[in-house]
Amino acid sequence: MGSFIGFAVAVAMYSPRAGNEGFVYLIYIGLLAGALLGLRYPVNVRASAYAFPMGFLATSLLAGLWTVRDVGPSGAYAFIAVVMAVMMIVGPSSYLDMFLVPLGYFGGFAVAMLAFKGYEPLQGTEGAVASLFVVGVMGAVLAFFAVFARWAFEVARSLPRR
Known about the structure:
By secondary structure, the chain is mainly α. Helix content is about 75%, strand content about 0%. The protein is globular and about 60 Å long.
């Protein structure tokens, strides 16, 4: 959650004319602030605890794969399918947890993208950055729908049959 807020603040403060690219490191500051707040004020969440590492891992693994070989759209969608499957298996513990999943996933994506910032083999490969953004943005949206579907299935199962 903290890295997502750091990302949002960095985007809000960024201006290509002013040359203030240092604001992008607010993502790390947000990550640290979110971790410290989480230690101080723990919240009982299940799916969003998996969302950040899943966003980071999916983005990092895909970026690593792009550095050694060409990955088509089906490869990027396979990463998203794995994320959705994990999110459906884990399931949300509450409404708050369900709505924190896309923010946590996108925060993990933002931290991974910052780790690969300026890495020439990745930046020079056509389609690599675009597929990483697909995995990041679409992955966050579909991770939410995965935990929402799990929640809907559990609610439907508990409804009385007529």
